[in-house]
Amino acid sequence: MGLNFMPCILFLHLLCSYGAQSRELAETENKLFEVPLEGVHKVSTNIQDIHHEHAHAHAHAHTMTDIDPSLMVFFTLKQFKVGKRMPIHFPKRDPATSPKLWPKEQADSLPFSLNRLPYLLKLFSFSPNSPQARAMQSTLSECESKPIKGEVKFCATSYESMLDFTHTIIGLKTEVQSFATFHQSKSSVTFQNYTILEIVMAIPAPKMVACHTMPYPYAIFYCHSQESGNRVYKVLLDGDNGDKVEAMVVCHLDTSQWSPTHVSFQVLGVTPGSSSVCHFFPADHLIWLPKLQAHGSSSM
């Protein structure tokens, strides 16, 4: 796909656009920015891992082999059982080496606004037509866009602001904890068949917050909550090549208000309201829930 990026985050388009065509940038644009906390000007421009298959979502295809592998994160509750083998795409982005959220004081010292983009580009030494500039513009535009029906959204620029938003959704006095997908083995394989070995936990989630990474010179999380019945699961997966993954799954039980053009319906061959829609979370995305009483979870 070269440098002609689509306008926003593919993962957000998959999980929360409900047909809004503005949310279609490949998730791998996050790799444009590898900024250590100590220096905001140290930005990697390595884009060799951005693949041409992200240029268009081939969800209209009639066979699974014709569907963009990056769309292979969806399934239904009927398919969700131990022993089930399915193709899954997990973008490989190590949370340990990903850009970290800045302290609130440092993040608040910079404007986070689309109308201040020229100033920000000068600050980070990016030319207006650079891939990084386009990625920053997409992120700022997405963060300033209106939420979809039933959605409450917020772009967190610091850990403190993420927690504050989470508490406004789940409860100001409620203890919360975060969950994330964890790869037990190191592998460069991003797409393969996985078998569900165990459903480790199942959590009813009438209130939850999902936070997705956004491309920016420092860590930005698009956090949102939707008014619908959800369930959160942690499962143990075994890849065909031996990869073991503790994967987080969210299942949306009521899809009746979703747009008929939502890509998950095209991938699964279902229609709004006729089926639940479940999806896997990449490793550096977070799910916030009320703190569980039982132990044994891989909370962060």
UniProtKB/TrEMBL annotation:
<dbReference type="Pfam" id="PF03181">
    <property type="entry name" value="BURP"/>
</dbReference>
<dbReference type="InterPro" id="IPR004873">
    <property type="entry name" value="BURP_dom"/>
</dbReference>
<feature type="signal peptide">
    <location>
        <begin position="1"/>
        <end position="22"/>
    </location>
</feature>
<keyword id="KW-0732">Signal</keyword>
<dbReference type="InterPro" id="IPR044816">
    <property type="entry name" value="BURP"/>
</dbReference>
<protein>
    <recommendedName>
        <fullName>BURP domain-containing protein</fullName>
    </recommendedName>
</protein>
<feature type="domain" description="BURP">
    <location>
        <begin position="74"/>
        <end position="291"/>
    </location>
</feature>
